[in-house]
Amino acid sequence: MSEETPKLVYWKFHGRAACVRLAAIIGGVKIEDEFMSFDDFKAKKEELPFGTLPILKTSKGTICQSNAQLLYIGRQGNLVPSDPFKMAQVDDLLGLGEDFYGKISPSIREQDPEKKAAMRKELNDEVFPRMIGYVERWLKGNGNSKYFVGDEITVADLKMYPIFQWLASGKLDGVSSDLLKSFPEVSRVYNNIGDHSKVKEYYANPGF
Hints:
- It is a single chain.
- The chain has 208 residues and is of the alpha+beta class.
- The chain has two domains: 7-77, Glutaredoxin; 84-196, Glutathione S-transferase Yfyf (Class Pi), Chain A, domain 2, CATH 1.20.1050.10.
- The protein has eight helices and four strands, in the order E-H-E-H-E-E-H-H-H-H-H-H.
- The chain has a four-stranded mixed β-sheet.
- Strand 3 (55-58) and strand 4 (61-63) form a beta hairpin.
- Helix 4 (84-109) packs antiparallel against helix 5 (113-140) and helix 4 packs parallel to helix 6.
- The longest helix is centred in the middle third of the chain and has 28 residues, at 113-140.
- It starts with 6 loop residues before the first strand and ends with a helix.
- 30% of the residues are buried.
- This is Glutathione transferase.
- GO terms for molecular function: glutathione transferase activity.
- InterPro entries: Glutathione-S-Trfase_C-like, Glutathione-S-Trfase_C_sf, Glutathione_S-Trfase, Glutathione_S-Trfase_N, GST_C, GST_superfamily, Thioredoxin-like_sf.
- It holds the Pfam family GST_N.
- Residues 83-208 form the GST C-terminal domain.
């Protein structure tokens, strides 16, 4: 591996690393995946800068948060708007994406089957419809753009798409794969992102 090639360290699934991988593919920025097993993560957790993954190891140092990694790669790949207001909109969505992960994560960590089922029911019936509704309202207030922020794909799309793809995949037990169908604007933009050739390429062969 070239010293200059960043290494993205994560587990063998999409999660918070998907947006970074997508930015690299779409932006033409070379990175390499370094997969860590869960056992290795447990053993090395206290050695990680913020105690979590993903991390992006570069020749200048380690970037420890997925949004920072996404912006670092996205800027190199021209996936970040130059307009300050549009950039603020991108930042809004990067933060909202983390809100989604924050709602999902406790139900993933929960070991009690009954408690997990109750948590997933609340997510499916109340939390996710409310949050997706926020995005629907946000899109309606921002015109009929092709993507979340304008007509060119940005890191905001690459943050939100893997989250909605996860919800729509049916892989989250207790969460309906039809949640997005009640939100026409979200569905429209989601489908536009999913139709991008490089997004299709990544999901067809993510490398794990």
